[in-house]
Design goal:
91 residues; alpha+beta; five-stranded mixed sheet; 42% strand
Length: 91
């Protein structure tokens, strides 16, 4: 299977609604590595690495997020897979 990397920025009501915690749970259930973080401007930023199908599922999850989130925009940048991460973290 092909491994890929996705760098995402999520805009909307995405802080204070357990977006990072739920993203981590979703990533771990798919064996996707990387990180997720709140940005000072109110967005959430994340990097996902893993099997293509699972990374794309995680990107799709970010289009809606957890139940209290209101995603207004999702920017996705596919980049070269690096294999740098050993797990998934909230930073």
């Amino acid at each position: 299977m092909t491994k890929i990397r996705a760098h995402v920025y999520v805009t909307g009501k995405v802080q204070g609604v357990f977006f990072r915690q739920n993203t981590k749970r979703q990533a771990q259930s798919r064996n996707v590595c990387g990180w997720v973080s709140n940005l000072p401007d109110g967005r959430v930023e994340a990097v996902f690495e893993g099997e293509e199908i699972f990374v794309k599922e995680l990107v799709d999850y970010c289009r809606q997020g957890p139940s209290f989130a209101k995603v207004e925009q999702l920017e996705v940048f596919f980049e070269d897979y690096t294999g740098t991460f050993l797990d998934f973290r909230i930073i």
